[in-house]
Specification:
The chain is of the alpha/beta class. Helix content is 37%, strand content 29%. The protein is built from eleven helices and 14 strands. β9 (204-209) and β10 form a beta hairpin. Bound molecules: adenosine-5'-diphosphate (ADP).
Length: 318
């Protein structure tokens, strides 16, 4: 399948800050791309350039073969956008709001407009709230109204900014299910800071930091890589920890050993990091038995995807 959205060498500067620095990626129908990064990483600026709200200083956005620069109307017509938060015009009823947004999208012919609204309303299950002012709806319904306006013109590409932010777990579940359903026929980009969301719905994840892509991977791959960053926690009597530390550090494949606070003040907790090829737990067991040391606790821990995220955005892994 050809790419529905291609972003090439996108760059945007604000005065001295390079908010987006040479960012390239593409998304196919069926893909849900998670766009991650700490605050200030450049996610919103990238999204604004993709949706045509902001002109890039360099690079190009192409939607269904149409350049946002040379064919902005055609390119924009193929994109649906769910901005962060709730839809504006809170005093409008849902039906009036959707009618207004259809009009804005150039869907003016009565029959076409009715069909577009009906399709979006039934997809987002908004039938029960059609005549209610948007301000009176729950957050979950408000978000669904936002989704409905984003898909009114049946776009092939959907850009969703923090789609489940501020929703309760049930509402989050519903919205994620909707995104999964829509992914069958659309290319979707989600900006989020919720890693669990990436694992739940994304087929790919890009992590942006200081305007640059620092990781382009699948959530499964991220999980595997995180798991490779494992460590063993050992609790030994404080007096013995001095003996253990130099021995451990001499072993090939042990990267570092950290001291941690143990609940029991007579104990020292050591956190031992090993390279991925090292049989870490076996190695630690052997050292303990060679030195006739008694551990009150010994357990393996693997890093989580959160740790991966911190590693690539902060350069640390703890
Ligand atoms: P994110 O969405 O990942 O939090 P943004 O794209 O909002 O990041 O911001 C990227 C960088 O650009 C930040 O350093 C931010 O302060 C800066 N920035 C964003 N918008 C503007 C603006 N209108 N004027 C000046 N600097 C901006």
């Amino acid at each position: 399948m050809t790419d529905a959205l291609t972003v090439s060498d996108l760059t945007k500067k604000y005065d001295t800050i390079t908010a987006v620095n040479d960012v390239s990626f593409s998304v196919k129908v069926g893909d849900v791309l998670g766009f991650l990064g700490p605050n200030g990483a450049g996610k919103s600026t990238t999204m604004k350039m993709i949706t045509g709200f902001l002109q890039p200083d360099a690079g190009e956005v192409v939607v269904l073969g149409k350049s946002m620069h040379t064919h902005p109307l055609l390119a924009k017509a193929a994109i649906g956008y769910l901005p962060e938060g709730s839809p504006l015009y809170g005093d409008m009823t849902v039906i009036n709001f959707l009618g207004f947004m259809a009009q804005m999208r150039g869907i003016t012919e009565i029959k076409k407009k009715g069909a577009a609204i009906n399709r979006a309303v039934s997809r987002m299950q908004l039938q029960s709230v059609l005549r209610q002012p948007i301000d009176t709806l729950s957050k979950g319904f408000k978000r669904r109204v936002g989704f409905a306006q984003a898909i009114l013109h049946n776009p092939k590409v959907l850009i969703l900014d923090e789609p489940t932010d501020g929703l309760d777990p049930n509402q989050k579940h519903q919205i994620r299910q909707l995104i999964r359903d829509m992914a069958k026929e659309k290319a979707i980009v989600i900006s989020t800071h919720i890693l669990e969301e990436v694992e739940a719905i994304c087929t790919r994840a890009i992590i942006l930091n200081q305007g640059k892509i620092v990781l382009d991977s699948t959530p499964q791959q991220m999980q595997l890589e995180a798991q490779e960053q494992r460590h063993v926690i050992v609790h030994v009597p404080r007096a013995q920890s001095d003996k253990l530390l130099p021995t451990l550090l001499k072993i090939n494949g042990i990267i570092k050993v950290e001291f941690q606070q143990a609940d029991d003040p007579t104990q020292a907790a050591l956190r031992i990091h090993g390279e991925k090829d090292l049989a870490l737990l076996d190695t630690v067991h052997k050292v303990l038995s060679d030195h006739q040391l008694q551990a009150s606790q010994i357990r393996m821990e693997t890093a989580r995807v959160e740790d991966m995220f911190r590693k690539v955005t902060l350069g640390t892994m703890n």
